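INPUT
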Amino acid sequence: MENIYLVGFMGTGKSDVGKILARSLERDFLEMDELIEKSEKTTISQIFAEKGEAYFRTCEKKLLAELAQKSDFVISCGGGLICNQENADLLKKSGKVINLKASAKEIVRRTKHCKNRPLLNTLNPTKTINKLLAEREPFYSQAHIAIDTDKITAQAAANLIIQHLRD
Ligand code: S3P
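OUTPUT
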């Protein structure tokens, strides 16, 4: 079976929902950020700080090329992965793409104590989130399925995805 990719902005619950979904579907779960941290032997924040965002995007792209050769995995993608049309095309070709959505207000609430998201480490995270959400919408909207996570638990989001996959 093809992979299931969870995409969407930071703080939309891709990791939590992905783990539950993988357990329910009896599939293995992979977290792209974790795999990059392992292969680069450092944290995402350090990669951004020392080598820059462009280097990180290259790591993501190479990893996606490897993962797209596999099947059956539930994969939580970094929030910016799909925001490159070649990546978006490969995601859609090699699996089902699920976009987890949340409002800017909820994303601010969920990410405000988090230290390991370098893109949100700005003077005005709310403004940054709104700007990035607007820029990224044309990419996120290419997903096969969209789930609004604002008012539901990770378990409920996973259940909704399973329903959609059956339809
Ligand atoms: C990013 C999201 C992060 C991580 C990196 C860049 C983004 O992943 O890949 O900090 O560009 O949205 P999460 O969405 O898992 O936080």
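end of record. The mean pLDDT is 97.
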